């Protein structure tokens, strides 16, 4: 495989030399493209000696080969390690200020970033927005490791170990490291899509209608599916937890954006798990400017309109997505009242939605949302209506493992419609 290894200007640049060695010893041809700033940490002579190729930082070398176009076009994989905050920002903005950013703009194959920076820089809203932008365009951005940084401080921002970057980057290109075992697990060879988090419906530039969902359960399900060998697409609305490493991340904000992402994913997935908390309603109008308090004291009137029922739509139109998902799992967050119990409402919802499984839990201010533990019942249309499904109680990770095992049992004997390569 032809790999471009971009090197950003951070102290962790020395680790990229070890990563380069891993790629070359695995038989890949590697062209190193450092930034000018990175050569203050590791010089060009080192990269040329280790890669066996001439190295440049500028578009004005090898002009006769149109180098700034050729490298991106020919690369089967581009890996940037370390990816500094500045480099992520330039890549997200589409700048072409040196050979590396030109190469990123010309990329035809997978692009993989391994960030490294101080914790405050990684957590800064600007960096997180740049990461979200890159991921939304299809790039894989690995989460940094936590640990000792340049000075005495510690925290997230440390460059992952070269061996971890090596394996994750090859996985992003659809390859496994030489000598690695084939994928194993209950969901090996399956494609699983998980939605998670709460949608936000804008009212004006600063306000939105939302809910209390943290996304913890959806993230746990995605992690459990990964652990069982699945290839996981993770469609994330607002989360209070980081997405699991190794997922194909798709970020959305509103119910309508989630609907589009789910319909697209349904074309190429075996299992669809709809654990996102989708707003039932959205403001009828999204004001272009902040709605202000009126001097006359009158209260604003906000008209709500119904959002589409994404789960029911997807079930009803399953055949429209080609072979369609083999299994669609819905979630129901319910509260009981004088008209029915939580279980009764769950069974009605299962019948109304038509999904294959429904994960039912009781919600409230101190229940489920944002908590680390939960209690659920998994309902199926095949259940005996006279029997009460058992309650599953435990951490959200434990519940996720139970659900993944149930999904695998439901799929047993069913061929992988969208088998991973």
Key traits:
421 residues; alpha/beta; Rossmann fold; 2 domains; 8-stranded mixed β-sheet; 5-stranded parallel β-sheet; 13 helices; 19 strands; 21% strand; EC 4.1.1.36; CoaBC; flavoprotein; ligase; phosphopantothenoylcysteine decarboxylase activity
Instruction: Report helical residue fraction.
Output: 25-40%
User: What structural category characterises the helix and strand content?
Assistant: alpha/beta
The termini sit apart by 17 Å
What is the 3D shape?
globular
Question: Would you give the CATH topology of the largest domain?
Answer: Rossmann fold
What proportion strand? Answer: 15-25%
Number of helices: 13
Low-pLDDT runs of 5+ residues are 364-370
How many structural units, i.e. domains?
A: 2
Round the Cα radius of gyration to an integer and report it.
24 Å
The CATH homology group name of the largest domain: CoaB-like
Strand line-up in the sheet with most strands: 12-11-8-13-16-17-18-19
- The CATH class name of the largest domain reads Alpha Beta
Write the CATH architecture name of the largest domain.
3-Layer(aba) Sandwich
The whole-number mean of residue pLDDT values reads 87
Main sheet record: 8 strands, mixed
Number of strands: 19
């Amino acid at each position: 495989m032809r790999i471009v290894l971009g090197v950003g200007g951070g102290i962790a640049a020395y680790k990229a030399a070890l990563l380069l060695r891993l790629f070359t010893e695995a038989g890949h041809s590697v062209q190193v493209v450092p930034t000018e700033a990175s050569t203050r940490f590791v010089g060009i002579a080192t990269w040329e000696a280790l890669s066996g190729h001439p190295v440049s930082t500028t578009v004005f070398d090898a002009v006769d080969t149109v180098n700034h176009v050729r490298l991106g076009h020919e690369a089967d994989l581009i890996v940037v390690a370390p990816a500094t905050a500045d480099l992520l920002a330039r890549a997200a903005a589409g700048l072409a200020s040196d050979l590396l950013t030109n190469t990123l703009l010309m990329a035809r194959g997978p692009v993989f970033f391994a960030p490294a920076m101080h914790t405050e820089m990684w957590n800064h809203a600007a960096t997180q927005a740049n990461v979200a932008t890159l991921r939304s365009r299809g790039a894989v951005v690995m989460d940094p490791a936590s640990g000792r940084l340049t000075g005495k401080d510690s925290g997230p921002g440390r460059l992952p170990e070269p061996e971890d970057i090596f394996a994750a980057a090859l996985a992003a290109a659809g390859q496994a490291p030489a000598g690695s075992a084939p994928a194993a697990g209950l969901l090996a060879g399956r494609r699983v899509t998980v939605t998670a988090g709460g949608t936000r419906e804008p009212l004006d530039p600063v306000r939105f209608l939302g809910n209390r969902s943290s996304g913890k359960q959806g993230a746990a399900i995605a992690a459990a599916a990964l652990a069982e060998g699945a290839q996981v697409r993770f469609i994330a609305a607002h989360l209070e937890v980081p997405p699991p490493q190794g997922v194909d991340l798709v970020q959305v904000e509103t119910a309508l954006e989630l609907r589009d992402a789910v319909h697209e994913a349904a074309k190429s997935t075996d299992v669809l798990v709809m654990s996102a908390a989708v707003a039932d309603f959205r403001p009828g109008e999204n004001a272009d400017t902040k709605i202000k308090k009126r001097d006359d004291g009158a209260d604003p009137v906000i008209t709500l309109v119904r959002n589409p029922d994404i789960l029911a739509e997807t079930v009803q139109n399953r055949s429209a997505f080609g072979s369609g998902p083999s299994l669609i799992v819905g979630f129901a967050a319910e509260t009981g009242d004088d008209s029915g119990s939580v279980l009764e409402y769950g069974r009605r919802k299962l019948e109304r939605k038509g999904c294959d499984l429904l994960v039912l839990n009781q919600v409230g201010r101190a229940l489920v949302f944002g908590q680390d533990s939960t209690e659920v019942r998994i309902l199926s249309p095949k259940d005996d209506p006279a029997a009460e499904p058992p309650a599953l109680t435990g951490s959200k990770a434990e519940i996720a493992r139970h659900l993944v095992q149930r999904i695998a049992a439901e799929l047993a004997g069913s061929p992988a419609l969208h088998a991973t390569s």
